[in-house]
Amino acid sequence: MTVYGIPNCNTVKKAMDWLAENGFKPEFHDFKKKGITAEQLNEWCDTFGWENVLNKKGTTWRKLSLEQQQEVIDQHSAIKVLLMNTSAIKRPVVEVDGKAVLISFNEEAYERLLK
């Protein structure tokens, strides 16, 4: 299991705490430091939808110019923005055996999918 995110994100902290409390010992991948590939982002978008991978509620999205925001119209344009602004990726993304299974943190979803 790998958890993708950034360490100072409260949602990532909640997810990591839940996982630890439930006996999981995931590897943590800080995508601000270690990066992320377009291939991985495409897989996540295929799984969750690009609109769910792109965090439009976060500070990073709001700091983009209106022009940059308006250019995001599909998966390809979203990935282009996400590669340049990894903090705009909704987090955490949890992969099990190399397959993305969860995005963000919802305790009920974690219970249902991981227990």
UniProtKB/TrEMBL annotation:
Matches recorded under CDD domains: ArsC_Yffb (cd03035)
Gene3D superfamilies named in the record: Glutaredoxin (3.40.30.10)
Pfam families, A to Z: ArsC
Membership in a protein family: Belongs to the ArsC family.
PANTHER family: ARSENATE REDUCTASE (PTHR30041), PROTEIN YFFB (PTHR30041:SF8)
NCBIfam families: arsC_related
Designated name of the protein: Arsenate reductase
Record organism: Pedobacter frigoris
